Amino acid sequence: MNRLEHLRVALAALDRDHLRRIRRDNQRPCSPRVLIGGKEYVAFCSNDYLSLAADPRLAEALAEGARRWGAGAGASHLVSGHYAVQHELERRLATFVGRERALLFPAGFMTNCGIVPALVGRGDAIFADRLNHASLIDGMLLSRAKAHRYPHLDLAALERLLAASDAPTKLIVSDAVFSMDGDVAPLRALTALAERFDAWLLIDDAHGFGVLGPQGRGALAEAGLPGAAAENWRLIQVGTLSKAAGVAGAFVAGADDVIEWLMQKTRTYIFTTGSPPALAQALLVSIELIEEGEARRAHLAALIARLAARLAQERWRLLPSRTPIQPLIVGDNAVALALAAALMDEGLWVPAIRPPTVPPGSARLRISLSAAHALEEVDRLAEAINRLESRL
Asked: What is the DSSP secondary-structure string of 308-350?
């Protein structure tokens, strides 16, 4: 059997285990109302939580940025691919999240993959929540530090691991909002452990930025962190600009010297072409819209409460989440796929999430809510799920 035949056998195994992923081509701009193959659906699968991705004000800012700055950066940020508008955005982001300095990246995945190896290496130790995002896991592997993965949100286990470690440098890494469960890490307790054991603390607030905290400043702000940089220099915050912010890219924020070190040592920053500067022009407007977005966040809260109130499950389970990520645990891969397909037949698009994205036996629908959803659309989804539970 040659290599190509091996791949075909492996693909067949994905089909057998109901694990093959598929793409669908949306023929409309990002919104909850999509058009796929000529049929309209209400989509519950986007991370565009504040419904900014297709906002005309962002589109106009992006067009203005392209007219002013062109289409591309031309080089890496540290050669000649960094522009005044990006410097302005970095300063704006740092102020927005209450840190001394911020550093822009083209994507959240490459941010985490790069900054973890810049902070620790061989002989050091990383302590990671078992449900962390894949980007944090890959960054951990690239660092060559000794990896310790503690059970989800189990701070007692984390404390024991920290106490038993004699590594010269320790790094605690955690999502702020977990992307598949929708729950929020105990950020103040993690900060206390980092201080007690003299560890770095890296928090990825990809799904909290723009949604949680005063004026959407994120999960750390909601928890009363970070406070003064002099007091919280060990706290490093990552945020993405492609979810609630509605555009693209990511940033890392922290104390000035820490960000300077990351700029000097992060390979995914040093050795990649910079982001198009036009994106920064749009993101400056996005931050303003996030700050002014209390009505959007209030509507999201109403949608979350409505879904929990209307779902009446006996076998399936909606995980407790106060974020737009609302996971419905089904368990079996085939049943999760069948449920997603049945909802599609009714004009409702909700993705079925299966291993390895989630642990075996916890296949689910990841219901993702947007400020552009109507209460009636959530009612329609809940009614369909309630009815289908008895059939599948």
From this structure: HHH---SSSEEPP-SSSEEEEEEE-HHHHHHHHHHHHHTTEE-
Strands (E), 75-206: 101-105, 125-129, 146-150, 170-175, 199-204
- Does residue 207 have an active-site annotation? yes
Bridge-based pairing of strands 363-368 and 125-129 is unpaired
If DSSP states are collapsed to H, E and C, what string results for 24-35?
CCECCCCCCEEE
Range of the domain at 317: 21-50+294-389
Residue of 179, 275, 286, 362 with catalytic role: 179
Answer whether residue 9 is part of any domain.
Answer: no
Q: What is the pLDDT of residues 306-335, one digit of tens each?
A: 999 999 988 999 999 999 999 999 999 999
179 is a catalytic site residue = yes
Point out the domain boundary residue: 275, 291, 307.
Answer: 291
- Angstrom distances, CA of residue 76 to CA of 22, 73, 230: 33, 8, 31
Same domain for 212 and 171: yes
Per residue in 19-45, pLDDT tens?
A: 899 899 999 999 999 999 999 999 999
- Tell me which of 243, 286, 321, 368 is the catalytic residue: 243
Computed over its alpha carbons, how large is the radius of gyration of the chain? Answer: 21
247 lies in the same domain as 316? no
